[in-house]
Design brief:
heterodimer; A: alpha+beta; five-stranded antiparallel β-sheet; four-stranded antiparallel β-sheet; 7 helices; about 30% strand; B: alpha+beta; six-stranded antiparallel β-sheet; disordered N terminus
């Protein structure tokens, strides 16, 4: 019995994320009700009908029923605008806690029908984006979702709705597919400089103090920061190259861990580490990261390394599978 | 965030001017444009019947709002269009309307107020919800147009407004993203057409009520047509109009022109100058309704235009009560009562086109057992010269008929004239008319005749109504210009009709008002009886309108009953109608959503490919010519055999054989090749003479 009622609840409200993509919106998941304007229009029609009956106006009947027919026809058009729409994919990009996670929703339509003004909404923002599709086209829209804590951020239940063409009816549909964004800890706003003691083979000068002279050039690799590109050589017609900096005597290396953060609270420590990882990546300093309970991240540099480090920070102490999610 | 200095100062000015927020904000231009289009289409037809100041006020309100949107720098205007100012203005306008009409709770003042309310709402338009209210109010205003006119024109005028309503809805939904006007109109038009079958079904099925749910205080002081009183000599000229009073369809024969007396209000009270209806009126009792086997009885249907009075019209002497016009039998509801003076009076004023069936006896004599009241001989002594003349004539002619004849011959012999522009008369109008001015129209003669009869001691009364009618195809049009007045006198146990106008201008009775007046330009074009292309066109248009009236406007409970009867059905009960609408609605939705009924597979015919069909056709043709394809014979062998048998078509047959082969076994078919082949086969078959 509970199972059955659970199934009905799931079917009606789509509370848990078990829709598989791509998904075609069929009639069993489309709801439709008049908008406030639709209700007002209906009330006006009824009032007109009463006046018509009282004064026995034949043309009044004709007008009331003509507008009634328009009302009914617009219901079907609103329904058809949503029916058969396909949710092809949902993508997500990582973000820092406190900022919006950007989900990307791709919709497509059949070759026979264009779609107008499809509103996409989440639990937090009912009208987060709008999309229109020409016949047979597919398009995507960005859905910003606010985040609070690090970890996995689920997109949650999506509401696709439309009141096209006359705004008298609103049809909507719930889609709840598993989609997650990874949320890194919020970086500390003004962190202390990268840990001094951790700089190896340095001469006691913090790399954060400034950038040294150019030591040489190497070929551009994906993930290199634009500020490091040797634009002068590009301007001369050469290939994209990146400046290697002389950092006070040799490539800097640092080890980041919670002890270095020296904060009693775990979250505050992770925030500081997060800020440091970013700082290290900005300075192109090689760093390693070790967190209790997880294998340490060997020293490295570059965007991929940075992401690995940030992911480790995001998921520290959290079950790795996305099903245990935080909002 | 820095605000430009101009903006800041403008805002400061606005704030200083009473702290009102700027009223023109919040609504974009496209919304405003779409709503202005809607309002102009809804309001314009109302200008025809509204007082000029109401139309002007509406125009000013709408114009000022559009100006405010174009010129946001006009701060004073902006401030005037605030909701507080407009609420005060609406109250003031309501008071003006009350003052203009003399009452407020009624149809006409309500329509005028609604007209102004719509304009005021537009002027203060700010939010989406304001626009919703505006749309609903304008829909209602659109409906109220039918209070005044339900002609074909009125219906056609409504259609653009309905389209504009749809356009406004679409623009309001998404002002920035809504498509252009013509695309919206196409969309709304499509939806209207899709909704039309449902609308027609509802129009036919929706149960009509025989009477109103409630009635508002008597509406309409401005009436067309006959009034309930008559004062000869008080108006200098009779204004006549082409307006249709009613239309008549006779069941079999059409009465002759001189017998087309349509009986209306009977005036039997006279105060010396003014005739009016008596207050003590009663229904005619059954013994007063004579059975007259010898008299000619006619049956006909009348479509009466709304005249906002309670009187119905019947030819000469009503023989029975008016019944619903479309009821197949005579069992239809009686629509009016027959009063003692022979008038048909309905319970309510006729505010819409009313159709009824009526039977009449064609006879100017109306026998009645009951002698008339003494009041029908009463005469105030304001016309002494007339009284003296009556006494003189009565001594000369003691017989009442002789007396009446003497009066009529006096009208025809003395220098009396028939004119539509008679001189005004003073305190003793009958005296002045009979002895001084001696010029007038039907009212004057009927009144003078009745006064003379009464002065001679013969009970008499004035009857008003219409005389005449113009045949237009299979029906008759009776116009306001056919209005007429005549007299009735009670002589020897019966009321007799006398038409004194006939004595002075016999042609008025014989052919109509046009003939009685030579070159009188007062007569409207359609009443002049000239046969011009314009008149012909007008009559044709009237025929269209008449059909419209009968089919659409006059569609009521009786028409519904008749429809069911013609279909051989009982009148459906309410739940049956509702069920029919629901089933039809479901089928309609399914059809529009593109659901097709699922036929079983064997019912479904698969289209035979075009090449195969052509091959079959050729086989069939050659088989008829005695060249059947043998079992196991390949197509090319068979066709070369046929080519030998038919040397005249040999080349063609061989070429066809090659092409069939190529098409059958080719991996890909060039597009259109099958169709070309089929065309060639057809041509070949046509070219082969049959044996």
């Amino acid at each position: 019995m509970t199972g059955a009622s659970e199934r009905v609840r799931q079917r009606v409200f789509r509370l848990s994320a078990d829709d598989a993509l791509p998904l075609r919106i069929e009639h069993q998941r489309i709801y439709i009700l008049p908008t406030p304007r639709g209700w007002a229009f209906l009330a006006a029609l009824l009032l007109m009908l009463v006046a018509t009956i009282n004064y026995a106006l034949s043309l009044g009947y004709a007008l009331c029923f003509l507008l009634g027919g328009l009302f009914a026809a617009s219901l079907l058009h609103t329904y058809r605008n949503l029916a058969g729409l396909e949710v092809r994919a949902i993508g997500a990009s990582d973000t820092f806690a406190g900022r919006d996670a950007a989900f990307r929703l791709t919709l497509s339509t059949t070759a026979s029908r264009a779609r107008h003004g499809i509103a996409l909404g989440t639990r937090d923002r009912l009208d987060a984006a709008r999309l229109s599709l020409a016949r047979g086209e597919s398009a995507s829209a960005a859905l910003p979702v606010p985040t609070v804590r690090r970890g996995h951020r689920a997109l949650g239940r999506l509401t696709l709705s439309s009141d096209w063409p006359l705004g008298l009816w609103r049809a909507w549909s719930y889609v709840h597919a598993p989609a997650h964004a990874l949320v890194y800890p919020a970086p500390e706003a003004s962190p202390p400089p990268l840990p001094q003691r951790a700089v190896e083979r340095g001469r006691g000068v913090a790399p954060a103090a400034g950038e040294g002279d150019v030591a040489g050039l190497r070929a551009y690799a994906e993930g290199d920061r634009p500020s490091r590109i040797a634009w002068s050589s590009v301007a001369r017609g050469g290939e994209l190259q990146v400046r290697l900096l002389e950092q006070a005597g040799g490539p800097a290396r640092t080890t980041l861990d919670l002890d270095a953060a020296a904060l009693s609270s775990l979250e505050a420590g992770l925030s500081r580490l997060c800020a440091w990882v970013d700082e290290a990546a900005r300075q192109d300093t090689s760093f390693s990261l070790s967190l209790p309970g997880t294998p340490a991240l060997p020293p490295g540099r570059g965007e991929a390394h940075r992401r690995k480090a940030l992911s480790a920070l995001a998921l520290h102490g959290i079950d790795r599978s996305p099903s245990s999610t935080t909002a | 965030m820095s605000v430009p200095a101009e903006d800041r100062s403008a805002r400061r000015i606005r704030l200083r001017l009473g702290g009102l927020r700027p009223s023109t904000s919040g609504v974009d231009r496209r919304t405003l444009g779409a709503l202005a289009l809607l309002l102009s289409l809804v309001q314009l037809p109302h200008v025809m019947h509204l007082p000029a100041w109401v139309s002007a006020a509406g125009l000013v309100l709408i114009g000022s709002r559009l100006l405010a949107a174009r010129r946001p720098d006009l701060v004073m205007l902006d401030r005037m269009l605030s909701s507080i100012a407009l609420t005060l203005l609406s109250v003031a306008l309501a008071l003006c309307i009350r003052w203009h009409y003399g009452y407020f709770i009624g149809r006409d003042p309500a329509v005028a107020f609604l007209f102004l309310l719509v304009a005021a709402k537009f002027a203060e338009l700010r939010r989406g919800s304001d626009a919703s209210t505006l749309l609903c109010l304008s829909s209602f205003l659109l409906l109220t147009l039918y209070f005044y006119s339900q002609t074909l024109i009125a219906a056609l005028v409504t259609l653009p407004a309905v389209l504009a309503l749809g356009h406004a809805l679409a623009v309001l939904r998404d002002p920035a993203g809504a498509p252009a006007l013509h695309e919206n109109l196409r969309l709304v038009g499509t939806m209207l057409l899709q909704g039309a079958p449902l609308a027609v079904l509802l129009f036919v099925l929706f149960p009509r009520l025989p009477g109103p749910l409630w009635s508002l205080p008597e509406d309409g002081t401005a009436t067309t047509g006959l009034s309930d009183s008559m004062s000869p000599g008080s108006i200098g000229s009779l204004s006549m109009s082409d307006a249709v009073a009613f239309r008549v369809e006779f069941d079999d024969k059409v009465p002759p022109r001189a017998a087309r007396y349509w009986r209306g209000p009977v005036l039997d009270r006279f105060d010396g100058s003014r005739w009016s209806m008596s207050r003590s009126r009663r229904e005619m009792e059954s013994e007063e309704r004579p059975v007259d086997p010898g008299a000619d009885t006619l049956a006909y249907s009348v479509l009466l235009e709304p005249h906002l009075r309670r009187g119905l019209f019947a030819l000469e002497r009503p023989a029975g009560l008016p019944r619903g016009s479309n009821a197949a039998g005579a069992d239809g509801r009686a629509l009016a009562r027959l009063m003692h003076d022979g008038q048909l009076i309905a319970d309510d004023a006729v505010t819409r086109v009313l159709g009824y069936r009526q039977r009449s006896t064609l006879s100017g004599r109306w026998p009645t057992q009951r002698p008339p009241d003494a009041s029908l001989s009463a005469l105030p002594g304001r016309n002494p010269r007339t009284a003296r003349l009556a006494r003189q004539l009565r001594t000369a002619h003691p017989d009442p008929f002789d007396f009446a004849q003497a009066v009529l011959s006096r009208f025809s012999s003395a220098p009396f004239a028939y004119t539509l522009t008679p001189p005004l008369l003073g305190d003793a109008p009958t005296d002045e008319f009979l002895f001084d001015t001696r010029a007038g129209f039907c009212e004057h003669y009927a009144s003078a005749f009745t006064v003379l009869m009464r002065a001679a001691g013969i009970p008499a009364r004035v009857v008003t109504g219409y005389l005449g009618g113009q045949m237009n195809g299979d029906y008759m049009i009776v116009r306001q210009s056919d209005a007429h007045a005549w007299a009735e006198a009670w002589i020897e146990g019966a009321w007799h009709r006398f038409d004194p106008t006939g004595a002075i201008a016999p042609s008025r009775v014989e052919t109509g008002p046009a003939a009685a007046l030579s070159g009188d330009a007062l007569l409207p074009r359609l009443s002049r009886g000239e046969a011009s292309w314009l008149t012909g066109l007008a009559l044709r248009w009237d025929r269209v309108n008449h059909g419209w009236q009968r089919l659409v406007v006059d569609f009521d409970d009786d028409s519904q009953a008749e429809l069911w009867e013609r279909l051989g059905l009982d009148t459906p009960l309410l739940w049956q109608s509702m069920l029919a609408v629901i089933v039809a609605g479901a089928a309609w939705s399914g059809l529009l959503l593109g659901w097709r009924p699922c036929w079983p597979d064997r019912w479904r015919r698969r289209p035979t490919p075009v090449v195969e069909r052509a091959w079959q056709r050729l086989e069939h043709r050659l088989d008829k010519d005695g060249l059947p394809r043998r079992t196991g014979e390949t197509g090319s062998v068979w066709l070369s055999r046929a080519a030998q048998a038919r040397p005249d078509q040999a080349e063609r047959l061989r070429a066809l054989a090659r092409r069939f082969e190529r098409l059958r076994f080719a991996a890909t078919r060039p597009s259109g090749e099958g169709d070309r082949l089929a065309a060639e086969v057809r041509e070949l078959i046509r070219a082969m003479p049959r044996r």
